[in-house]
Structures are given as C-alpha cells and as structure tokens.
User: Fold these one by one.
Assistant:
Number 1:
Amino acid sequence: MLLALFSDIHANRQAFSACLDFAKAHGADRIICVGDYVGYGGDPEWAVETVMELVGKGALAVRGNHDHAVAVFSETMNAEAQAAIEWTRGQLSAAQRRFLAELPLVLEEDDRLYVHSEASSPAKWRYVLSTADAGRSLLATDAHITFAGHVHKPALYSISATGKMTSFVPISGVTVQLLSGRRWLTILGSVGQPRDGDPAASFAIYDTDSREITWCRVPYDVETAARRIRDNGLPTWLADRLLVGR
Amino acid sequence: MSKFSIQPGAVIDGFTIGECVHRGGMATLWSASRPDIASPLLMKIPRVSEGEDPAAIVSFEMEQMIMPRLSGPHVPFCHAAGDFERQAYVAIELIPGKTLYGRIDDLPLPYEEMRLVAWKIALALADLHRQNVIHHDIKPSSIMFRPSGEAVLIDFGLSHHNQLPDLLQEEFRVPYGTAPYMAPERLLGVRDDPRSDLFSLGVLLHFFTTGVRPFGESETMRGMRRRLWRDPYPPRKLRADYPPWLQEVVLRCLEVEPVWRYPTASQLRSSSLIPTRSS
C-alpha cells in the first residue's frame, strides 16, 4: 500500500492542492496528515474543510500545535505566528474548530506511529533537531517507523539494535529503504511553509510492502499563496518567506 | 536477525543454496541457483550471530541498500536482497575466476601489464563514482575481471552512497577498511570524497609494480597515521628501471591531500593510463 504523508500544510491551499494531485498521480492509496493544517497561511477554512473531507473518506489525521492553538486558546507563540492564529480563529466555524480540537495527538497503525512533533511527549511540541532529540522519541515508542513533522525540514533518523543513532538529510526523489533491522524517525518537511531553502512543497510517499520512502518536492503557485497572506492582512514576512523557502 | 543456520539445499525466497564457497569475517558466500535465472549465482549471507562484530550487520545493511541500485559491467548484477526480518542476503551474479589477489605470488608484475590493469580499474571506478558510490575498500581481493576483460568491483559493505544514509559513518568512530589501502582522509573521518578510491588504487599499483606496500602493513591507528605526514618511498628508489611516467602516476594517486591527486578516476585513466598499442 502506498501512503502519502503530509505535514505542516499551514493553510496553503495552492501547495496542498499541488501535493494532493501529485500523490494521486503517483498512485497513493491512503492519506496521512500529521498536523498543522492552519496558521501562517491565507486559506485556513479551505484547509480544514479539505482535511475533514479526507478524514471522512478514510484518511488519518493528528493534531499539530497550530491546530491546538486555534482550537484550544492555550498556546502562545511568536508575534507573527500569534497574529496568524488569532486571525485564523475568526475564519473557522465552531464545527471546524471542534474538529481540530478533537483530533488525537498520536495515532498508531501496524508498525507505524503518526505524531506532529515527537513521540516522547507529544503535547510538549518539542522539535527534533538532533540525534539526541530523535533518540528520545525513538526510545519512547516500539513502532518501527515514526512519521512526524513540525520542523519544516526533511530529515531521517534511525536507531540500531545496539542503540546507535544515525541522521540523514533525504534527497528528494531518491528512495530510501527503511531496513527492518533498525527503527526509524522520519521528518516529513512542510507542505505549506518549507524552511530548507527550497520553496517547493515537501511531502513523502511510503510503500508499506517494500518499506521504501521517497521525499517528493512539488512546485506550486507560490505567488498566489503569498498574495492570499498579504490580502488577508497577515504579517508580510509570512508571505515573503514562501518565495525563498526559509 | 538470522533465525536458522544456512545449509546446502536450503531454499530462501526461491533461491536454492549450494556449497559454501567462502567464509569471510563479515559474511559467508554460497553458490546458489533459481530456476528462472540461467547464470550461476552467489548468495552472500551476513554473520549476525551472538559475539560477531556489530559492524558486520551495519556493513551488510549498506550493501543491501547500495547493491540493488548499481548497474553496468563493472559490478556484479544484484538479483535480489533479503531483509534481516527473515533472512538477510544478497543474491548476485557469480563472476567466474579469481580476484586480483590471486596474482600476489607473481609480484612485481610487468609495468605494461599493470598499466592495463590500472586502466581497467580506473574505468570501473569512474563508472561507480558516476553512480554516486565510493567503494572505500579497493584492494586486490575486491577486484575481479570478466572473461571479456572489464574489471568488476565486488564487496560494497564499506561503501558510501552520497544520496543514502551512511550508517557506517554515523555509527562507528574508527574507520573501517583495509589498513594498507586506506586513504589518509579516512583516518580523519572523511567518507564522502571519491578520491579516497584513487589513493587505494595508487597503493595497489605501487604494491603490484614494486612488491612493496607504500605504507607497510601496520593496522594500528598510530601506524596508519604515518601516511598523513610521511611520503612513501618513490618506486624508483626500490626499482632502478621503474618508468618515470608510472612513478608520477603512483605518487600522484598517493598524495596526502585529495586535491593534489587526480580530480577523477576518468582523468587518471585518460591522462596517464591509456594502454599502448602493444599492451
């Protein structure tokens, strides 16, 4: 079965549409969304509506910190993110906010675990930026593969049977086999706000039979996505950064 | 992990196991066959039982990832790879004949003969490097020749693929390789420079034309580190009739700094090793 895995969509309609089309064209059977459907971007209503529809058709979705902040009112963020959160909250209907609030923090399926940040303490929204961070997450679960997002830059970590960690920055389009002798933490990169210097939307396709993962980069209409942010009066840096992928 | 020991006659994923042809430190090699494959096969199975070097597992994982991606006449064709979950193996094309190590009793070899051998190895390295892989264990026992003449590189357990995770780099602090052939930068933890293979080819060329290994056989880190600051004896010091052009090739391959070596295997081959009409 081919899984299409999306993270950090951030209300970017143009990016998410392009990724969904790409995944469909490549024969993806099942959609997994690992959080942050809203925040930063100009189309939060569409983004939540789309995820709700996908979940209605059998997709899996977990909650991200931006979804949590919009729905639960408790998170505080940096000024630009906070401005977007407050604007987003006003855009969503009560039903949409409830949908976000009720999403689970973690889902498990076969030998896989889906979480927005990391597995050791999902509600703390810790970033996985090093092998030490990855090790903490990998030791907190028995899942063979953990799929996460939150960092906005693709990465791949593994832990061997003897407890040794490895880290790797995946190359888009190059398939990596997630060997069964070790356990893996994959960081998907961001659909709607990539920060690794490549403005193209990032997501991954995973083949559960061959255990092969491929990171995909999809060019999309960045200018329109940026204009949607500006037209809605959101901080202009949120628009500008899409053009440079930072 | 391996759940049973391999016996002749066993069937793994449709491959019937024949005789054990080699027991190495990290893996065992078996002849094998499958009804739909006409040519003879070799099954490589890692040593993974209790007490074995954990590097054997990691190096096999590297081979499992890299071998199925390689193609062309300079590598054995990989028919299938099995995961550790059931029985780890790679099933590859059997290259008939012996490795270059079989010539070790004949050293030193004639200069013109070694020019052609080095030319063939450089061609194979160029093809491997083009496929994003650095071999990292170039030595006589890693090199075979097809009946049609092409050099074939074998054993990719220490190799680096520049588009895949390098599990050896991340997991082990000591450099894995064969001490006399290891490039100086390997001792400093560098695994992503293809010119490391050109250094190893220089060691091989020096050894096969003089009968002497340029940096000895020491396997200690202290012994190996000498190559970071001590020049090898020039081949002409060892053999008065050594051709100056060949000494230039050898010493340039053996430069301490990768940047002072040939930039690529193709440049080494085409600028310095073009076979003469008589060879």
Note: The interface with chain A takes residues 1, 54, 57-58, 61, 64-65, 83-85, 88, 163-167, 170-171 of chain B (CB under 8 Å).
Number 2:
Amino acid sequence: MAAAAVLFQILACLGWGALLLAGLGLDRRLAAPERAAWSFSAGVGVVGWLAFWPGIAGLFTPAVLATLLAAGLPGLVRLRGDWPRPHLSWAAAGLAGLMILHLGFQGVQAQSPPVDADSLAYHYDLPKRFLEQGRIVFVPRAVDGAVPLLVQLTYAPMLGLGGEVALTLWAVATTWGAAAMLWAVARRWSGDCWAAAAALLFVGTPAVLYGGGNGQVEVRLALFATLGLAALGRWWQERDLRWLALAGLAAGLMMAGKFTGLLFATALGAVVLLRPRRLAAVPLFGLCALAAGGQWYGWNFVNSGDPVFPMLFGLLGPERVRFWTSEADVFFRQAFLATEMPLAHTLGNLLSYPLRATFAPLPAFESGRTGLGVAPMLLTPFAVVAAWRERGRLAASPVAAVVLAVVMFYGLWFFLGGSQRVRHLLPLLPVVMALAVAGAARWATAPGRRLLLAAGVAVVLVVQAGGGALAAQWFLGNWHGDRDAYYGATVGAYPVAAWSNRHLGPGDRLLNPYRDINYLLDVPFYHAHPVDQSLVDMSQRRLDPVRHWREIRALGITHIIAAPRIGDLSEAAEAEFHIPARALWLTARVLARQGCAEPVAQLSGWQTLSRTTRGTSYETSFTLLRLTPATCPYEAGHG
Amino acid sequence: MAEWAKLAAAALWMAVVLVLWAAQFGDMAARLWGG
C-alpha cells in the first residue's frame, strides 16, 4: 500500500509538472529525460501548491488529496519521447553500482520509523495534525509552526493514503528526484557520465545523507532551486519570457517552502534586472513568484498580523502581531537567533565561510556532520580555469546567469539570513555541483587530466559511500519491528508519549515542551517550546506560577511534565543544573506543593544525541502531573 | 606552463584538499569507535 501510494504521487507529480510545462509551451523544448526531471521538480511544487486550497477550506482529507493527485495523471502523455540509449562503460558500471548501494542504504532507513528531531517536531507532525483536523490550522510558533509549509503538504497525501512508510519512501523518492534534476541540468554541460557522477556526489553529501531520508525540506527545495536556476539560464540565453515565467514560479515555490526562499527570489530578481527589457521581465517574474509562493505569507498575515511571523514584530508592534509579546521577542532573539550566527557579518567572513565550513567548521555551522562535503571545494578551481579559458562566450551563456544568481543568493543569505547552518545552502548545491563538475570536465580535455579528475571524484564518492553505510548501520542495528524499544532507546521523552497515548483521552490536553515527541503523540497537546512560542512563557528567567497557571488553564491543559523527576534534584543542585524548560519544572514543583497538581506517573527513558557516534546516550526522567483546579488557590474565583 | 607542471599542480591541490578534509575524520573516528 505504501509503495503504491508513493508511486501514485510520483506519477501525479510527473503529470502535473508536464502539464505546467505544456501550459507554458516549454515541454517540447526539453529532451525527453530533461522533460521528465523538470516535470517532477515542478510537479512536486504544483501538488504542494494545490493542496493548500482544500486545506484552508476545511477539505483536507485523503479522498480530496487523492483526487487532486489523480487530476495530474493525464499530463503523463506529455512525457513521451526518445530517451538516449545508456552508454555502457566501466565508469558507468561503477556509478550504477554506487547508485544501487545508496538506494540500499536509503531503503534501510526508509523502512525504519522516522527519528529525526525536526521531522518529529513539525515536518511530519503538522501534516498529521492537518489530516486529523481536516484542515490546515495556524500554529503560532516561530521557526517550526508559522512557516511556509508547501513541502510538508506533499507529505500529507503520503500519510493519508499510504501511512508512515509511504512518508519515508517519499523522502527517498524526492531525494532521487533532486539528483535526477541535477543530472538533467549537468548533462547539457558535461555529458551523461560526468553528470551522473555529479548526481552521485550530491546524493552522498553529508547534508543529503542527513536530511534526504526524512522530512527535512532542504533536499526537496533543491528541486525548485535547480528548476528556477535552470529556467533562468535558458531565459538568459534565449530571451524567451516563458522561461522567465517558469523561473518565477520556481522561485515562488522556494518562497512557499521556506522563508529563505524570499532571498532566493530576490537573488533571481536581481539577475533579471541586469538584462534589457526589464520593464516586462521584472513584473512577470515577480507576479509568477507571488502566485506560486504568496499564499503562505497571506495565511500568516491573516492569522497573526505578520506575514513572516514573528520577524516583523519589532516593526509592527504588539498591537498588530498576535501570538507574540515583547518579552518573547527579546528572548527569541537572544536564545535562538544569536546562537545561529556566530560569524560577524563582514566581507572577510563572507569570503572565508566556505573554507571554514569545509575544513575548520564552528559547531553552529553543523558542517562537521551535515555539511556540503568536499567536492565543490575540490573541483571549483578547475571549473574557474575552464571558465577563464572560455570567458569570451561565457557572458551570453546560461552559466553566467546561474553563477550570478548563486553568488547573489549566497551574499543575501550570509548577510540577511537567520542562520549560518551550512545545510541551509543545500537547495543550491545541485546547481553548484553541476557547475563544478561540468567546469572540471571541460578542464580535463587530455587523458592525463581526465584520469586525475576521475581519481579525485572516485575518492570522494567512495568516502561518501562509507558515510552512507555509517548512516544506514544505525537503522539496521536498532529497528527490529518493536516501536517502543526503537523510540525508547533514542527519543528521551518517548516514555511521556507512550504513557500519554495509553492513559489520556480526547478530553485531556498535555502541555508538552519536548518537540521530538509531537509526531508520536496521539492525544491532544500543546507544544510549549521554550523559545519559539509565547502562549506559555517558558523563558528561564523567573518563577511566576500564577501567570503559568493562568496561561495553561487558558489553553485547556490537564496534564504537565516535570523533568527531571521532582525529588531527583537536591535544592543545591537545582541552581547549577541546566534543566530544559526550567520555568516549567519550577512551576510544576510549586503547583504540586500548592495542591494544584498531583503526580500520576514517574517515567524514565534514554536520549541518544547522535545515531552515528557512540557514547552519546544519557538517561532521562520525568514526573507527569494531573492538574487539580478544585484544590488550587490560583484558580480564578477560588477562595 | 608545461602540461606535466599543470598536472602536478592539479594533483597537489587535490591532495591538499583531500588531506585537510580527511584530517577532520580523526576526531570522528575516535567518537565512532572510541565507545
């Protein structure tokens, strides 16, 4: 059933994308393999875009989503065409072997339940909640709630029609979709074999090994970024505005997939400004981007008053922005944004960031484990030499537009982005990889050069395959079909979810500060993240049980969690010990002492910080408390 | 510049980049197999 659902959505995406390309009159301008790759990239966006409208209309059901998918199938007839015969060689056989190896690794991960924290917190949780409620609901959380969710909407049909395994298989399918798009772009510049090597370098990149097989959006956004840049390149070369319309639509899909899509659209828009006939081109590009990506900004504005919730709070003020406060804003900027950007915004840091991220990363870059690999650094000098040699005809080629847009995006991201995590650049990696490999292949004109280049690429591919094996081995060793044992050894707060699912009912509501059990909860809950929401003040600055009581009662909370267990810490240790969600822990203890809550369960579990490296597990403990308003002095109207 | 010199420069660049990259694996290996 899961595989059938995934196949259905793959075909629907191919069909919808082909219809879009045909509607623009561009499908016959692409060779058959390119048409399929471009169609899939565009089609994933079309499906995510279409699902929004029944979602806000309260028609977010598996039946409606299936109808929406089925409506795209007629587009498949547009994909007929002549496919090139595979060119058999030792290199092609080696690449095919590596591809099968990576597919095997990903298959191991795909048959295991999702375990990535962000996926459990929102990528997979939000589609699950939308399906439960039959509509898209506004989630007033910064970073992982009130954000553009086009990609997550493509997960909903998978969950609704095929279940959890379909979700994880879809992640694999879209990863290979991005690789296919890379190949389709690169083969124009470097031929099929080098293009396949570039695609495999992408698939084995640490950030792809990390985020490809789960709900992380960056790999999926690579579909739209590559489509947008490739279409921009064709417009640059051919001056046909239909390519620009497609680039605008793809930029809009990026906007609808993540806030950084706004920077992507700006970068492409800046390149459009460099060309003649700006008066027609710029509005066309802008309108297409707005049509494809404006819906989530409108949705945020209607629900919260801030289209990029809560980034404009300082500008709009508390009277215009709902679900956010001045206190929450200050805490959010200190506790989240400041830690995400360790490098000062200087030109020197802009230039040195790629080197540092590759060879000497700061922890906040996260490039030690989820970086972009070494291939771009290894190959770019060769591509630069080749570009210099062909500089005479470079300005008119699509490469010029693509390079300009990539550099522009990088600059905007570095100076205006909200995070310096290197994986946030991942959506542009396929194009960078295509350029680097194609450029290096053009440098390698003599047999000696080709041999050297092939050897360098082969070393990276083999090391990356080793990384893939490491990533897969954990799933192989830990998933044996027992969900409780699997999650119990990995997700520290899993016992809370398991207990709540067994003992709480539809009339209860849990106050849950642990983001990685959101998806695992089958009972009503409010996710009280310490930093990115303001309805329950979780900042660790002060103890205010009266305010906390008022806030959690307003949300209809019936159960709260204290971790570590109340009584596990001495008074002296409390001051020193860093307790996640400290304010809630202190409040829970006061509420228990004041007769406002009573312990109903003492639980313990194991948190594993890294699935790859050893020795990162530690024990967790929790007290679950049931609120007792009847005996609480803080209850309104009470004595 | 002679072709052999270009090849040597290219090989040197690749070796330096790959060695610098691999140098990071020491810490990773210690964490992987260090228990």
Note: Residues 447-478 of chain A form the longest helix (32 residues).
Number 3:
Amino acid sequence: MAALIEASGLTRHFGGVRAVENVDFRLEHGEIHALIGPNGAGKTTFVSLLSGRIPVQSGRILLAGDDITALSAHARVRKGIAYTFQITSIYPRLSVFDNVALAAQSRGAPDLKDQVAAALGRVGLKDHAAQTAGTLSYGHQRLLELAMGLALRPRVLILDEPTQGLAAGEIEGFKSLVASLVPDTTVLLIEHNMDVVMDLATRITVLNFGQVLATGTPEEIRQNSHVQAAYLGGGDAEG
Amino acid sequence: MTDGAKSWALHLGLIVALFAAQFFLPQYHATNLARIMVLAVFAMGYNIAFGYTGLLSLGHALFFAAGMYGMGLPIWQLEWPALPALIMGLVAGGGVAAAVGVLALRTTGVSFMIVTLMFAQAGYLTILYFNTYSGGDEGFVVDRAGRMIGGMDLAADTPRYLAALGLFAVAMLGCLVLVRSPFGRVMVAMRENEERSRMLGYNPFAVKLTALVVSGIYAGAAGAAYGLLFGYVGASFAQIQYSILPLLYVLLGGAGTVIGPFLGAAAMFYLIDIASSYTSAYFFVVGAALVALVVFAPKGMLGTLRDRGLKWLP
C-alpha cells in the first residue's frame, strides 16, 4: 500500500538559506510521526511545503498515491491535510462555536451543531461554545485550535508545536488526546518537548540544516550517534 | 425568544414601520424616505463587501452607475420597458463587479482601495467620453412612459414609495439570510483571519469575489432603482463621492450590521438636509459628525449597541 504522504526530493531555499534541501519523507497510515530538530532546522518550512502554505521549489508530494504538488493550500485541506498553527491562529472575535463550525462546514458537514459539539467535547471545551474565542485562556485557545483541526476530520493532522506554552497538566491531557486520534487520523507532530515525543511517536524523523539526519523508532533515534551529536549536544551533554 | 426570532422580529418590524410611515409623513419626508431606502440598498451592498468580508472598496460608484446606466440606456436608446431594464441594471452591477473583482482582488488592503478607485474613475471618464450614447455629464431624463411597471407609474408618489420599500425589504431580508447562512460565516472568517480560513479549506479569492459580486448586484439594483424612481441618469452618480457615501453610511450605522446601513443613510441624509438649510458649508457639519463618530462610537450606531448588550444583532 502507498504511504499516506510520500514526499521525494523536496527543496525550498530562501535566498541563500537552504531551509529544506532534497528531503525524502514517508508518512504511514495511522502513525504518530514526530518531526524534531534544532531551531532553524527547517521543520516548519517542511510541513508548510506539505500543507501547501509555501510552494515547493522542486520535488514531489503524493497523498495516498495522488500527486498533490501543484494543489493550493485550501485544496489540500479539502483533500484531508489539516494544519494547526505554531502561533495560535483562531478567530478571536467570533464565538468558540463559530470557530469550530467554520472548520466543520468546510467539508460540508450536514449536522453542523452535532459535529461542533463532538469536536469541542473531545478537547473539553463543550461548556465554552458561546464564549468569544479571544477571551479564552491561552491553553484553551490551543485546544480550540486543535478542535478546529479535528472538526475538519482530516486524514493527516499536522500539529506545529502544539504543547508550546502549555502547563504540565495540560500537556498530559493533550498527550492522551493525540494518542486517541490514531489510527483514524494520522498525526505529524513538530515538537520540542522530548517527553511528549518519546511517549507519543511511533516514528521520528530528525531534520538538521534542512536535511533528514535520521528516521526511525524512538529507541533507534535515541541510540543514533549522529542525532546525539547534532541535536542532543553530543556525549558531553549526557548525564 | 431566541436570538433568531428576535432578529426576524426586528427586521420585519422595520419593514412594517416603513410601510406605515407613508400614511403619517408629509410628502416631502416620504419622498426623502424613498430616496433613503434606495440609498440604503446601496449601502447594504457596500456593507456585504466591507462590513462583513473586510473589502474596503473605493469604487462602488462604478457599480451603482453600472446599474443606473444598465437600466437607463436600454430605456433611452432601445425603448425597453422598465422591468427588464431594471433587471439589466442588476446584471450590469454584478457583471462589472465581477470584472473589477477578478483584477482588483489580486491586491489587498490599501492597494485594493486604490485599484478600485482607479477603476471607478476610469468608468466615470468612460461615461463622459462616450457622451453621444451616454448623454455625457448632462445625463438624460428617463421618460415617464419608461417608468411604468405592471401599471404602476413609478413617477407618482405612492407607487414610488412602495417600489422603494419593496426593493429595500427584499434587499434587507436577503442580506439577513445571507449573513446568517454558512456562507455569511465564511465571509466574516475571511475578514477576521484570511490565512486561517485558507487553512480550513476556503479559497479566499473565490469567497471574496462572490461577496463582491453580490455587493455589486445590490449596488446595481440601487443605481437602477434610483434612476427609475427619480427619473434621471447622470455621470455625477459615477463620481468618487458616490463611492465615499456608502462607506460613510455604513460606518455611521455600524459596519457588519444588517440595519446599520439604513440608519446611517437616514442619519447622513437628514444631517445634510438640515445642515444645508442653515449653511452652505454643510460638509463642515458632516465632517464634524464623522469626527465625533470616530471618537465616541467607532463601531457606528448599531455596532455600539451590539457591544453594549444587544449581542444578537445580526
């Protein structure tokens, strides 16, 4: 069976900066795949190429075997690639209900109210439906962003640093939520919090200077000497 | 009462009140009100683009004039009856908006304002240039014979008032249905956060173009009706002030509210009417009123009311 997303030779430069350089990548059905790497490694650029927010310079992207390289971002969302923003991007002046309804109606959900209630219920924001989104706490806004992603019922959910700025208790809740999404939804997770990555990911890809350094299970990545050198700071940092 | 029921009651109530008003108002004010209702349709159309979708256009005079000439020229040159000419006005307004939108919507923000302004100026100059066919800056009078719809003489006071009210009612209820619909929600989403909307699967260009065409149809309907009801078609309606006026009506009444454009049009109309009876510098009074608006109620009359507790106002 074809991988859910298969990217080959993806490249994107910004001026002289090789943000993403000749990256091959496979996202298998139903996995939680973490994308890690030092700051500036090209993680956000890479997922922006997958979601279509940034056009590719060269390379090819297949979604379940179909070439989607030339599709616009909004067309890719309709095909099932949802992206949640690193910096929370909601509609602060609209109600929580409207925020999620916009996601649900985008795929033509007939029973809008039920779908919104289900998505809000899943992230624990059911009681906040009538509230203006901008008045939610930061943690709740992150959850709302996630609920919007879920309401799209995507095949692939790309989460860009979802736990950034969350309290420890909120991170635990988030982890169990993401774990409950698979295998119906495949998750591609950019994350700096190594505990979250090691607990959730079935596979990990490490990016460094826009190139793939290693791909493997959490155990393999932990043992990989290149990764240790480049990302974890070498043997000296072990302690 | 649910929020939906409240808003229907309010809007239907306004239509009933306007219907009743013709029996109480002196003729002078009834004619003013007919004018205001037609201008309010123009402003409602402007509000669909600006208030709901966030498209700050400075070119709506072009769509208003497209409707007016789209109606007037077939009557004048081809002796069409009024009803098909009126429909032609709507089509012209929407068609011109589509053509402008396809080009202007490649830009956003200030560039969009300037591009729409330029298109409108080009439209105005085009009317002057083809003065043999358009009547140039003198314009032309629409014959009384051309202003009959189904035996109703639109030059007479009562049919004129009723025709203006009918158009206003259809336009307002249409706007209400639109903004409460799923597409209305998407228009607002485009205004609030375009990038997020794109990443929810909406094509920003398609949404904005649709909103602009609907807006153009409203402006075209208003322009056509204005020419038909008041019997004159002229290039002055294509001038920049007819792009600014709907913006002022909407800001005054409340951007992104259904009734706001009507309140704004009525307030501005009477402000000018009353001020000009005291001084020839009536634009000074208008300017002072706008400064007061920006300082004390930047969201306009209804926008302020909505913030102060009437959250259900659509």
Note: DSSP finds nine helices and ten strands in chain A.
